[in-house]
Amino acid sequence: MTSTVPNAIEHADEQQPPITMFGPDFPYAYDDFLAHPAGLGQIPATEHGTEVAVIGGGLSGIVAAYELMKMGLKPVVYEADRIGGRLRTVGFDGCDPSLTAEMGAMRFPPSSTALQHYIDLVGLETRAFPNPLSEATPSTVVDLKGESHYAETLDDLPQVYRDVAEAWAKCLEEGADFSDMNRALRERDVPRIREIWARLVEKLDNQTFYGFLCDSEAFKSFRHREIFGQVGFGTGGWDTDFPNSILEILRVVYTEADDHHRGIVGGSQQLPLRLWERAPEKIVHWPYGTSLSSLHPGGEPRPAVTRLNRTAGNHITVTDADGDIRTYRAAIFTAQSWMLLSKIACDDSLFPIDHWTAIERTHYMESSKLFVPVDRPFWLDKDEHTGRDVMSMTLTDRMTRGTYLLDDGPDRPAVICLSYTWCDDSLKWLPLSANERMEVMLKSLGEIYPKVDIRKHIIGNPVTVSWENEPYFMGAFKANLPGHYRYQRRLFTHFMQEELPEDKRGIFLAGDDISWTAGWAEGAVQTALNAVWGVMHHFGGETDATNPGPGDLYEQIAPVELPED
User: Fold this and answer.
1) d(CA 98, CA 395)
2) Distance between CA atoms of 196 and 189, rounded to whole angstroms?
3) Could you give the count of Cα atoms lying within 13 Å of 260 in the half-sphere of its Cβ?
4) Torsion angle, CA of 49/55/58/63, rounded to 10 degrees?
5) What is this structure's pTM?
6) For 377, which of 126, 169, 414, 425 could close a Cys bridge (C-beta 3.0–4.6 Å)?
């Protein structure tokens, strides 16, 4: 559905600033930091050319490596699989190369302003993503309990859906000061943001999403809670998030992260791949024309890391899958944190014990998708009796849950995401092959659209992913459970190392699961920039006085600290 969140600017001046992922946990202006002509900082000339290990070639790792290279350091990127991480774009064997499927991140909100900096930097285009009932979606079908409703706007749905939308708006306003926080985030009013959020973190850290709904008089109806869970807001059903901390959900709705999504034309994996090949216009130490690719033999990253340990002088020693052993004075770890528990042999001395506890408590959501290529966007054909689209973007309580229709014009081949699911719904697909999954999905959709023969339009084999079964991920994205705020705070603030013992410094955690916005590419970028600041500081560097970095302003905007006792 389109967002059922009350819009903080509906009755305000239209010139009010746009929303950005500016907090609420750490209200630092990463977009301003990136846009400043002074750059992100500098290191002493004596450190130029020093190697820094960057473990993980996803978006966070590539952004961190790119910015370190610009400062004159030499990033050495390790990647177990392929550059891009969960920005993974794949094609279909034997089909037009322009047909692609986004196996991971596929939609990005305008509030991801630091991410947008890099999208613009490498010259990528975006376009509106066809979410349920969005302006980019010709029509949406909501199919629950065997009853289908066709809609082009929210007003086309039965009254009960509008009642649910109103209940969610009231729930947020009464229980989480939505309008006040949304306004403060737009205006970048740090004192007000911190005042509201400190109170809510203390009040709600132990509360689930579902419990938050149940505590609201607006959601006293089980039927309303059930519909909300299955249809939700923004991108669809949210019942798979019901066990998670309500703080996770509030971060999304405050910053409108689930609204106005855009997709990257040609696929999101182009972003890290283009950064890998890009020669910065401004670079220190390295000759003009230097890129991350050119700093790596053969233009390829080092292979998977198999061991991490500390050695004399507080160095980080890295062993890779080729048996190569290299030692660094600093390293950034951007892969999913569970890799430190399973795929990589690690010394306990890498991190303080409280940080190991936080890593072990990490809770990842499962997620699966399946795409098929089709000959054309046949769903735009009109039913001769009703005049409606013969098929629509579909939200359902059947196995498929969410079906997305993706086209590049009426006369071109197109792609259907037959199913996009999370958590238990994703696990239901895990034992099935791609073709077995497709058969179940076609059966479910055939019950919703009995007059539509989807199969006759399919022109290639399906492609699928279950992120919980991917060996270098073991899950799609992090989602904190109630009581996990303290763990997340430890991980996010790890880039501030002055208070750590000297023998625990030098390795920096980054990635979207280290951020406050796990599951969003913006969090990957923000934590990469934190780690860059940390490495720069570690080598005795500093930011320009006119462009303070996240570490320079840390004391003023540090995340709320809850008592441990």
Assistant:
1) 27
2) 11
3) 13
4) -30
5) 0.96
6) 414
| Structure token digits, residue 183 | 């306004």
Q: In this structure, what are the phi and psi dihedrals at residue 42, rounded to the nearest 5 degrees?
A: -145, 160
* Structural contact between residues 248 and 207, judged by C-beta atoms closer than 8 angstroms: no
What was the pLDDT predicted at 11?
A: 36
pLDDT (average), residues 500-509: 96
Helix (H, G, I), strand (E, B) or coil at 29: coil
pLDDT band at 235 (very low <50, low <70, confident <90, very high): confident
Model pLDDT, residue 464: 98
Rounded to whole angstroms, what are the CA distances from 26 to 67, 191, 285, 516, 533?
Answer: 21, 12, 33, 8, 15
Pick the closest to residue 91 from 441, 468, 461 (CA basis): 461
State the CB neighbour count (10 A cutoff) for residue 554.
19
pLDDT in tens, 294-318: 999 999 999 999 999 999 989 999 9
Q: b/e for 329-355, b at 16 or more Cβ within 10 A?
A: bbbbbbbbbbbbeebbebeeebbbeeb
**Residue 86: which region, alpha, beta or left (left: phi > 0; alpha: psi -120 to 50)?**
alpha
**Exposed, middle or buried: residue 392 (CB in 10 Å: 0-12, 13-18, 19+)?**
buried
How far, in Å, CA of 459 to CA of 164, rounded?
40
Give 209-219 pLDDT, tens digit per residue: 999 999 999 99
For residues 434 and 476, the answer to whether their CB atoms sit within 8 Å is no
Q: Which two tokens stand for residue 499?
A: 């208070």
Nearest-angstrom CA–CA distance, 401 and 168 = 21
Distance set, CA 3 to CA 7, 145, 181, 257, 261 (Å): 9, 23, 17, 10, 11
Nearest to 489 by CA among 561, 554, 552, 550: 561
